[in-house]
What we know:
40% of the residues lie in helices and 16% in strands. It is of the alpha/beta class. The strands form two sheets. A seven-stranded parallel β-sheet has the order 3-2-1-4-5-6-7, sandwiched between helices. The chain has a six-stranded parallel β-sheet with strand order 10-9-8-11-12-13, sandwiched between helices.
Amino acid sequence: MRIGLLTSSRADFGIYKPLLNLMVLESDIELKVIAFGTHLSPYHGYTINEVKAQNLSDIDEIDSLLLGDNSSAISTSYGLTVIKFSDYWNQNNFDLVFCLGDRYEMSAAVQAGIPFGVKFAHIHGGEKTLGAIDNIYRHQITLASSLHFTSTQKYAERVAELIESDKNVFNVGALSLTDLDKFEFDGEKQFREKFGIPKKPYLLITFHPETVNSVVNKQYVNELAKSLKKIVRQFYLVITLPNADTNGSLYRSALHNIKKEFPDNVLLIENFGKENYFNAMKYSQFLLGNTSSGIIEAASFGKYVINVGNRQLGRVKGKNVFDCEFESLSIQECVKNISILGSYKEENIYEGTNPATEIMKITKSFIQ
């Protein structure tokens, strides 16, 4: 069976890894990884090198991302991605193509495949993020897909509503949490030395723009900067930089300015990679930001999360997630309150039995 796997960013590739590890062991699977989006952008760390480091035998690269992050650049990149993938789907045939998540680049690649009858398998459909236009892209991908793997039962039900059928919709749990109990963590000392993190409590921080009402981002960046300048006096800050969304450069610029002002108390990371990110989460005090990893993964590491603003509004959240307004004093107050809680002890609502194995079993049955 010939399977394609679309990866457009550092984030989705890290999530795919448990599934990739199984696929490469299957003698009856001819796997082709199709890398595009920010993977090929030096500005975002040129993470195609991480893809190549996995010793995958067959990788195609499709370059279609513009460097700008205003609305025009995003729209133009979407159109260019559709054009590039129109040629690609015309020249390549697959039994099934995996796609993941809700990025606009992923949506463009999938939309281009519709006239060619490409069969897509969508991972992480049915979710809701009302503060990001990714919500629309995610549902577009769902409607264009033939096979669906969701991270909770509620999301499976939403996919069934969207496609008006529960056929080929499977709740398997979050793929990134596959075999987490077997994950080999670095020792804390080793991890800190690798990235030069001093021996003091640190927060793991990730902020992305809000893209539904993008005009608020200038205000939000100011509120973020004001809060971090206070928080940095109590905690070391480990900050992963935002992805290629509208107005992402505003956040990047503000975070670099924080780094310049507090050079000994801030670490900026372009691309941790899944393994280092998991280590960073494990040894952090708690998470601060508006990224899906805090909602989906943090509970499995015993971490509380401060979820700021509306970007993730609509996602199913565990008891470890505390919502907070995108306002400096509110963020500081949440940090103060969460600081005294210690470790989170309850279950993660996104954990499945073995998502990667379940996806492989269902995929084989679907293709046959």
